[in-house]
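Example complex used in Figure S2.
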Amino acid sequence: MSSLEQLHHDDMQHTLRDVQALLARQKLEEDLIHRQDLHRHEDRRELVENLAHKQNVARITDKLTGLHPADIAFILEALPVDDRLFVWDLVRSAETDINDGEVLLEVSDAVRESLIEAMAPAELVAAAENLDTDELADLAPDLPKQVMDDIYLGLDTEERERLRAAMSYEEDAVGALMDFEMVSVREDVTLEVVLRYLRLFDELPDHTDQLFVVDREERLLGVLPLQRLLVNDPDSNVGELMLTDTLTLHPGDKADDAAKAFERYDLVSAPVTSRDRKLIGRMTVAAVVDFIRDKSEAELLGQAGLKEEEDIFAPVWDSVKNRWSWLAVNLVTAFVASRVIGAFEDSIEKLVALAALMPIVAGIGGNSGNQTITMIVRAIATGQMPPDVLRRLLHKEMSVALFNGVFWGGLLGLLAFALYRSWSLGLVMTLAMTLNLLLAAFMGVVIPLTMQRLGRDPAVGSSVLITACTDSGGFFIFLGLATLLLI
Amino acid sequence: MSSLEQLHHDDMQHTLRDVQALLARQKLEEDLIHRQDLHRHEDRRELVENLAHKQNVARITDKLTGLHPADIAFILEALPVDDRLFVWDLVRSAETDINDGEVLLEVSDAVRESLIEAMAPAELVAAAENLDTDELADLAPDLPKQVMDDIYLGLDTEERERLRAAMSYEEDAVGALMDFEMVSVREDVTLEVVLRYLRLFDELPDHTDQLFVVDREERLLGVLPLQRLLVNDPDSNVGELMLTDTLTLHPGDKADDAAKAFERYDLVSAPVTSRDRKLIGRMTVAAVVDFIRDKSEAELLGQAGLKEEEDIFAPVWDSVKNRWSWLAVNLVTAFVASRVIGAFEDSIEKLVALAALMPIVAGIGGNSGNQTITMIVRAIATGQMPPDVLRRLLHKEMSVALFNGVFWGGLLGLLAFALYRSWSLGLVMTLAMTLNLLLAAFMGVVIPLTMQRLGRDPAVGSSVLITACTDSGGFFIFLGLATLLLI
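Predicted assembly (974 residues):
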């Protein structure tokens, strides 16, 4: 017991490589045996195949045994579908001693689907039985209705009530992220009594950093941090030592706001109460971390027009579905831009240099607009927008755009002159760049603020809209100016 | 003490609005008094002004008093520079009882700069004196050298050593994120002894969910979770109950890997040890949460080519500097694409429809390529890439591209036909779309995997590179095919 068996994070990479190697070896061996023995007796071949197979299965099972459900999830996500289902069968065999319900909770949505499809209804019911109510609520949307009905029958009244409550909240509400594993005490007892009470437990719930102090009606009176319990005189009273000004959440609160509060105050757990101050659950930093990670993933994916995280081994068709809507939107905006150009075909025919120069004006406008929009979407997300924000931001962004327009536009004007030996073309280029950058700045401020005012998430779709504006707008400004001044 | 003073997250929004309103009112009042009293006696006017000013200052100070440093930071970030410095002066006045060093730690980098600039060296030294060594290390890069020298002189030998160590690690290493507030115990004592030892503390460090068990040489033997301390018999020994297979970090470990381990195992704290297993610090979930948030911010900003988060009230010139490098890169790639078009000017002059259609091919290629790249960058970040990944991914992405090329390309071909009544132009459109989508898929797989192999972060710059490929490539393919088949 005196040496520390270091569980280091590199270990999981190694375990993954080992499992991948074993799976590859298994395929190779079985293939070899199959080929070598083609001319031998059928039974004999099967015997050898079976032996090799069993050996490999034992080796892989050995690797998996005792792993944390999150580690199993990590490995399953990294394997192609056929290997994944093979390993999933091994995981669920008795020897590994792994809670398959918890693995289902840990894997990504796309992978979870593939695992659930491979399980019989009875197996799913059995897997779900080991889960807490709040975990069950997370899994429920992915389970077949028949399975959920069976699980529901196996719950007691309190659990059913909790499950129903947890499932009734929006995905991004505190209610959907809270759990029910809270330890509560009364205010009129001494710390000594609390210490004795805690010794009745086999273990405390994870992330128990504070006990909840409630009255007889389960109304929250305050919280007693474990550290206060530990450093204070056992004869003191809970009521004297509890904190009454800690963060309290309601199940309908936005998870995003709760997450920000956790970050701001460095919390580990927070009580969730009903409107009449009854303690109904708690939220932990583990749920917050998962939420933050999921949200930032979704934002990054959303910016590239991916609906959800893709299982990189997903069938081609799944990928097509995940990506098509963005391509469709893009097709429409590109088509509109193309029609703007079409309207100036006569000008282009007369001065073909315009065709070569116009994508520069549109492209740089799009980039600049996206910079503005990203900055403003971030600022909106922090909730720190001042009342006179529109005026201030427009002033600032338009100033930046004017500077960039004169500087970069001037540079491009010189380049255009160098290429086509026309001062007037250079001038049009500089003017068009400046105007398109001003348009980009204006729309970059107005689009996200308008979306916010309309109650929509400014992070979604702003980027498509601004690019559409700066593309069509850029072509129109450049070709329009050229037609007026040059043709 | 029996009622719960709810600290609800909406409160900060309200406080912010109140402070903003008070600041606006102050300006208005002072302005009014100034105008009304222009004809009165100078002294009298100053008197009234002073009175109104004092009243407003008292009101704002009242709002700020007792706020958490993170809340003060929130408010400061939301204010324009002049208001911000005014409030910052109030915060630092004695009445509010706020630790200004901690506020400096909480604000964003850009805002921190503006606050530090407004402080005298002596004030900075005083602010820093209240901070822990690890916090000081975070602040150090932003402080003037003279101030750091003064602070350094005020530290004892152990603190100096820790500060030096903490500052010696890369920003994204565990060493830079760890703190030194760990409570350690010996393995050969009983829980009773530990409980009595803890009562000697006034308070335990935040996020103490486990005690570290060390030997006489400070080597880590295991950890004793507080919950084990609480539920077990006080007569049992630490050595019997400590866990020896928990996650241990080294200061040189990547913070990103450590954050993933925290997420995976739902940790609150983890010990940091040197190579010879000596306990040198600990990492907490609070540092992990901040790290995850900062990283995802940086990624989102980076995708739009912003170097760092902008203070939305920053001077125009700061914004220009923050954004210019991306615009410069974009200018180069756009110029290259423009030259590709320039090479086909003869063809465009003959068939001007090409000018209108070419941006569609380039644009959709760029979008599709960015989808592929985003998906692959995500997969690389999770560390789950299988050994034969290149072959698998190329096969899948090229299949998706082929499908999209035939489908969307076909649709565009029909549109081109409808607009220009030329079947061959429609055919060129379809072919070019398909080829450019295949190019996008190929580069979308190869670029991030190559960057990874070269040891670079595939999240940075991949998007610029792919857009450059699909723009120039798209123009080249479309105009090249058109020149071959139509001209």
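The domain at 184-303 of chain B is CATH 3.10.580.10 (CBS-domain). The radius of gyration of chain B is 31 Å.
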